[in-house]
Structures are given as structure tokens and as C-alpha cells.
Queue: 4 jobs
Job 1
Amino acid sequence: MSHFNTIFPNVSVLASYNSLDQVIRFEELERSEFDKAIADPFNRSNVDNAALIIHETSHYIDHLATLNGQRFLLETYNAYHGILSGDEQNYWHVAKLHKAIKKLKFQDYYKEFTTESLTTGKRHSDWSFANTFGQRFDADGISDPNRPIIFNNFKYMDNFVARIPLSVEALWEANAVAAEIQLHMASIMQIKDQGERKVSEKLLENRFKEWIYTPELLTYSCATQLVSARLGLEDIYFAFVVTKALSSICLNLPDIYYHRIKMPQSLAIPAARKRGLKYSQDPSIMFYLMVVNIQESGENILVNGRVDTEKVLSINGLPSKKVLESEIESEIHQFASRKQLIGDFIIQYQSLVANGLALFRKIGIDSSNSSLDYIDAAKDTFNLCGIDEYMNEDSGIIRRINIYEGIKERLDNFILACGY
């Protein structure tokens, strides 16, 4: 088993984004279909392909155009340089990357599903939701109060369905699905016949309810479930929009604001555990605190179907959007100037940072109002389409994939030598 598989969730057999080589792979989408979808995404004949493209591009953007993603990018390229340098004093970067990956995704140990045969429906009122708290184990098998977990507990008609930890992985997938549903809705809004539009809206709602209420997919839908349950948003579309807004803010939050975020008054847990939440450096923990703070405030954060980002920040005791975006941009600049990144990868890395910075300036801290810009961003990604491109050994992208696969093998071998 590889310790360095891509960090972004791959729940589709049709496409994937690999964070280790920054390539989007479209398994069954020909280049001509990709180009048509990019050129006219709202056309009903193109919209499904456009949704697939926007889903994977969302992962690419969360990787390059958020502060959390840029941190991971820096650790990735430090690990590459570390293992290729031949200097054992640099190998610690490989272990650091391994730990970063484990922090973003939870092992199956922490997830629990019912062993009973249970058929679940899609009606919101038949499901119930609650949160509990726990602690993760360290490499020595000791529970660590500085590594808290927030569990999402699901029941269907009072029958236990699953206990799923909230994770950064869940935020990423919620963002990608939210971008899809926003694209579909924009396409539906272009239908002139009111009756046909209503039917299309209902079909879209049912399609994403299937995703929300499928037990096997709760790992990826639990962030949206949290928003829906805590904020009383039964409308699937608005639950996704709010989830994407809050997730985007949390994935961009500078370190100092983890300590300053308002602690919900209703959180009846020991002071030490509250401290663990604030110092977790985990965007999914911040996401939970933001949702509960908004719930306690009783304020409506949706204005004309868009999230009022300034109100969200104010409720949570955070500075204005302008202040945060300036600090985030400054931190991303600092990543690119760090001296530990030397060697063959500095040009590739700095190019990715510059691309991410340009995307961040366009999208901002709240990507829920910018999802439709992702189609434009897709044009500039490394991407492969169709079997012919996969088989083209002369392709620069294929050469890129092969180089990074070789590096990943060396990373894996070192981690095995460390006893992981």
C-alpha cells in the first residue's frame, strides 16, 4: 500500500485530480468533449461533462488557491527535494509530508457503520444528526488531546447508520459537489419554459439527495449534513452553497485566527478540550465552530441566494474579508520565497504558487460566489483526456506523471524504512 497516494477524494471512476503531480485525469472524456464543455458549459448537452470538469477543477483550486492547499504544496515539494538530494539531513521532509497526509484524511478505524441490514430513504425529516468529540491516536498508540476529532452521528428513523469524523477530505468533496450543483442550477436557470424548469430543478434535487443520503458516501457529505442540520437548511442547493462558503474560509484561515475564533457558548466540553480545538490547526475543526457560532447567532447569512461573507466573519470574531485576504496573499508570497526549496523543482513549484496566487486574487476567501469561474480555470490545468492522450509517451504531461511516480516510490520506500 502506498503512503503517498493523492490526498484528494476520488469517488468517481470517470475522473480524478492527483495532488502529487497536479494532473487532472479524465478517463472517458475525449478532448473534443472537454473543449465543447469548456466553450459552452450551460448547454444541456454539455452540462454533465462540464460538471465533471468543474468537480475536479475544484480540487485543483482547493490545492493551489487556498492557504491550506499551499501549505501542503510546500511540504510536498520539500519532500521531493529532500529524497532526491541524497542528503540524509533533508529526509525528515518526507516524514513531515507523510504526517500531513494522515492529518487530512482519517483512517477507517475512526469510522463506524451499522452492521444491520438497513434500507434508508431520502426524506430529510427521517434522518437525525448529532455531534460527539474524541481524540486521535499518535504514532505510539497514545490518544492525543491536541488532535481532536469531531464525529458526525447519523440515524435513520432512530436506527444507527454511521459515525463519521469530520475531516478536511470532507470539506474538499463538499466544495467539489457544490461547484457541480451551482453549475447545474445556472444551466437550469436558462430554461425559458417555467414548467420544464421546475421539473429540472426537482430532478437535480433528487440527484443530489441521493448523494447526501447514501450511507457509503457519508464521509464526503458529512460537512453538508452538518450545515443542513445545524442551520435548518433543508433546501439542498442552499445547504451546498453555505457549506462551500464556510469551507472556503476555513481552508484559507491564517494560523493566528485558529486561536482567536469565537468559541460557541453551547459547547459543553472541558476547557482543555476547547483549547485542543483552537490549537488543532485543522480547517474541519474551524468549520464546525463556525457552523455552531452561526447557529447560536440566529442570523441569516444568505442574502439573495449568496452568502454574506462579512457577516459570517463578524459572527465568528474574525476580521474583515479585506484584512484576511491581504494576510493570506502575504503568506502565500512567503511560501514562494522560502530558501529550503532548492534544487530541480524550484521552477515548477514557484510556477504553481504563482498560478495559485492568481486564482486566489480572482476567487477570494469565499469561493461559493465564484464556482462558475472554475470552467475558465480548467483551461490552464495539467489535464489528460481519453485513451489516445494516455498512450502518448511523447506527451509532456505523461512524462510529468512518470517522473512523479518514480519519486513517490522513493518516498514510500523511505517511510517503510522508518517503520510506518
Job 2
Amino acid sequence: MIDLYFAPTPNGWKAAIMLEETGLAYRPILMRLSKGDQFAPAFLDISPNAKMPAIVDHAPDAAWGDAPVTVFESGAILLYLADRTGQFAPLPGDLRARKELMEWLFWQVGNQGPMAGQLSHFRNYAPEDERDYGFKRYLGEYDRNLGVLENRLEDRPYILGEYSIADMMAFPWAFIAKPLGAALADFPRVADWRARIKARPAVQRAIDLHKSEQNKGQHRVDNNSVLFNQSASSLRPRPKDETS
């Protein structure tokens, strides 16, 4: 059994999609981010960055020994699960294919993901009078990354040719283009790629996981200091009665 620490966000969907696609048994543990579950000492032991998703594999392969394996950061989680199952990634011995996979995973975590996350912040959660510059700045970066993906998909249906964890990483932030104030009209290959992935039953199950708990603007900078404006002090242990 694998514990999945999860909230219904694009980053949370990445790990949930992979678990659904592989068919591994898992238990979703809802993280109430607006209430600060991510800062509980027990969770910081699993994810020192105080971010979800994170997993605990209670029955790893024998090579890992007897102790449970904890993994934080979505890219690391998907790589771990791909290696564990032999699914949705080139085999470690296929060096050229593995190199391409790493390039696109690092592109997602270093470019598409952060730019889309900042766009989401300024579109949906920042104070009204401070949104314009940030929104324009990150919308431009978001569109630039859509262009990178559009070019990559010119001669292939998926990022590596076959459906892989590279697609699972990049899909969620393209899936929510409209709520981000962006459009896919100028990126027809991305739109087709998005539709192919969205139609997969495993992807639909992952997106529906705890769907009612999505933050659709109800928790914003001006009304939730737990979720926004975090600092190093956020990582300090909270009093015992606040971590339950």
C-alpha cells in the first residue's frame, strides 16, 4: 500500500495520475493546505519542503530494504513509481531515451510548472490592485512554454513519442489553461495532446479525486495567511494542539 499525500491541484494530480495509470494500491490522504496540514511535523519528516504531493511506500521492492520509502517532489515521485513498476518511462539502460525523459521532466519542474503556478497566483489569488503586472508577466511565460510544447509535438502524439510520465507531468498545468486566463487556440497540437490525455480513464479518476476540496478562489492572499505569504518560520514546529 502507498500513502499519497494529496490535494486537488495540478501538482497533486501528477502523482495521482501515475498511481491510477499503474494500478498500484494507494490510499489518498487529503492535505488541507488552507489549514496548514503541510506544516505538521510528521508531514515535514516526509516532505521537508512542506509541499504535496508526497508518498510513503510501505512495501517497496526488496532492494530498498524493510523500511518504508518516502518520496517528495512530483518529478521524483513519478520517476520512483516508473522504476518500481517498469511503466511509462524508458528503461534505465536506454540512455538516449532516458536522457530525453530527464530533459522534459526538468523542463516541466523548472519552466512550465513554476510559470503556470505564478500565473495562477496573480490570476486567482493575489490582491486585486496588485494583479496586472504579475498576470501579464506570467501569462507571457506560460504562453512561451506552450510554444515549446507545441514545437515538440510537431511530429509525435506525446512528448517522448509514447505516453509517459513526461506527459503526466506537463498535462495538469495545460489542463487548466482556461482558468489561468490563457487559451490554446494558437497551440492546436497542445490542444489535441491535452484532449487525448484528458480522455484517459485513469486521468479522469485522478482529476476527480477530492474534487470538492479544490480552492476555487475562496482562499486568497487577503484572507488566508497560512496558504500564502509563507516564510521560513512556517517550517517551525507548531504547538501540539495545532497539528492534529
Job 3
Amino acid sequence: MFHATIRLAPPNIAALKKALREKYPNIRSSHADEALAASVGFKSYSAMLTVLKRVSDSARLVVQTDASLLQVRLEQLGYAGLVPRDLQRLVWEAQYPDRWEADEVELSLRKRFAPTAANSQ
């Protein structure tokens, strides 16, 4: 299973939460927070919130989201019958406002570390 890579930033987490709650309106807000934290590797929403508050605009923390971890945490919170493929699609298709790959720094790093062509002078 492929994982979506996102920049760990408050707008992205909010966008993912919005997409999750639109698809599954029965999921409580606090449960969505806990499940989203689990999907990016945190044991709790509180732990993720601590990191989110420390990440400034100049810091870049890129994480992979795992729809399986999202599903497991939601099931632990009492939400049964979730379809793994639907959760994976939701994570991939969410509209993340803070894109990491279009960032100026990312582009300059790619150029800097790109190999030089053998026939260039």
C-alpha cells in the first residue's frame, strides 16, 4: 500500500480532518483528531499538537500518512466497517493547502543535488 506524503502543517491536518468528517460525518471531532495523529505516526493528538505548534513556517517536516493506521485507530475508537481502500483514497485525494513538493526550497534542493550530465561542459 502506498502512503501519501504531506508536509506536517496545521492547514494540512485541518484539510485531512475536513475530508474525513465529510466522508464519515458520524466520526466525532476528537476521534478524528486522534485517528489523524495515529495516521502520521503519533501516539496521541496531544503529541502531534505539540510538534505542530513548534513547527514554524521556515521548518519543514514531511510525513507519510498511513491509511491503515488511520483505520486501526478509528476501529479502536468504535468505528467498525470502514473500507481500507476508501480511507486510502481519502488520504490521497484530500486537498492539502500547504504542498511540500512545490516549495521553492524543495525545487532548489532538487537542482543542487541533480547529477551533472556526462556531456555537459
Job 4
Amino acid sequence: MRLVRDALLEPDVKLADRMTELAVSALLQLPQIDGTADRPLNSLLVVCTPEPRPGLPAKIAETVGAAISQRLRRTNLRVQSLAQGHAAGLVGFGLAAKALDEGRADVAAVVGVDSYHDINTLGWMDETGQLKSEVNRDGFFPGEGAGACLLVRADVAKALRLTPLARLTAISTALETITINSEEVCVGEGLSAAFLGLAPVVEAANQQITDTYCDLNGQRYRSEELVYSAMRANHLFAPEVETTHPADCWGDVGASSGPLFVSLALAASQKGYCRGSRAALWAGSGTGRRAVALLDFPAANPEAA
């Protein structure tokens, strides 16, 4: 069985502990922001984890969230757990942005973490035809990883002298009723609805999407879903839109997809190899949740923007 695993974690580390270590490592790379004695910052941490599956401990989101909170030991920190699979990180961005907009938090961190490093999980994947192998082309290589992003209100960023790297412009979610385990043919209605939810923002600014980052992992279901969705939402994308699906490099990273996509989009923007300055990040969970995030970056490649 082929899989991608973190090189610093021993193979016998239990799954919940693996995910905690991965998540904490990602969070510690974020800017460490503290308030003042007069005005302590209200912080929100959204912990995004896989959906229930064989080999995954029950209530893994709550378990990892509690372990992270104990490790960080930060005051005025509220933790929210979200076990929604591949789309969890992007859904988490929406929850964090809403909390910031409503003044319930000054800063919010979204961490997505996942790991398939469990023999029961791998056995289940193999039995259900999800594990890519020499005899099964319609599967994927499982991975593990974590990504974290810090979201800050504009006034707080200015007060703390933080320079924003990107702007979360919009979040759109929808539900696909014909999931990957259904016997019916999926024609991408859920993903289409999620994309089309961005239409008012894209059309108002007359600025099409130039780059996309997605969780295509080699499964035919996901590829066909995208084809149907792209036909319905084609007007939202620039003619030469760039599509990046990093699962072919780092494996399927599940619930950590959204935050890790942000890191790739940031790198492309800062190093100037993106198509333009507007990126769409999208992912789909096994139970049907579809989510798309729209990010705007400083124009690193003016000729392509």
C-alpha cells in the first residue's frame, strides 16, 4: 500500500496524536499575535478534520481541538471543531470570516489536518476501491498533512501593523446529493451551485478567476463532476485559467486541503508564476459538501492579471 506520510513522525504514532502534532506544527508557523492589557484580543480557532470513517477515532475533531488548546494555552481563545472532510477547511474560512464580521472575534485561525496513516483506514480504502494500485486506477494515494491560515479584520491588521497577504473575498457552499458512493450518475449540480454562488462577486468587479486549486485526486467521479460544473460556470473563468491539483505530488490530504491550497496560491502570487491575481480554491467532501473560496492577491504578474 502506497501512502505519503510526514517524515518527522514515527510510523507507530497513533492517529489522533499524529493529527495533533501536524496541526500544532502548522499553527506555530503563523504570526503569534497577542493583545494588550487594556484590550486582549478575542481569538477563534477553527479545527477542521475528516468525516467519520473506519480507523478514525470517534469525535476526532473535538479530541484534536482539545489537545491543541491545551498545547497552545492561549487566553481568550474559543475553539470550534468541524469534521466535514475535504471541504472542511474552506467551510472553516466562512465560519471564521463570519465571526470576524460580526465582531465575535478579532483574529481567527483555521487549521485543517488529516491523515490516512492507519491500517484499518487503508484496509477499508482497499476493500472499497479507493486505494490506487496497479490493479485499481480509479483510486488515490492517501497522504497526511496540516495547513493553517490566520484571518484578521482590516482594522485589527492595521492596529497590529500586519501586512495582509491576500483577501478572502467570498465563500460559497452547496450540497451534492449524488455522492461518490451513489449508483446514480453525478452531473455536478452541487459543485456548479457552489461555483455559481460566486457569480455576483465576480460579475460585479468584472474580474474573472485566473487560477484554481482543487482536490482532484485521480478518482473518475471527481473529474467528471468538474467537467459538468465547468460547463455551467465557464463564464466565471478567464480563457486560460490555470488549474492546479496537488494530490498528484503530495497525495490526497483530505481536510487539510483548503488551508494548504492557500499556501500554494500565496507562493504562486508572490513568486509571479500565477496566471493572475484572483484564485478559486475548491474541494468536495465524501458526504456531499462542496465549497469554493475566492481569494484576491496583489497582482504579482501584471501582464497576466
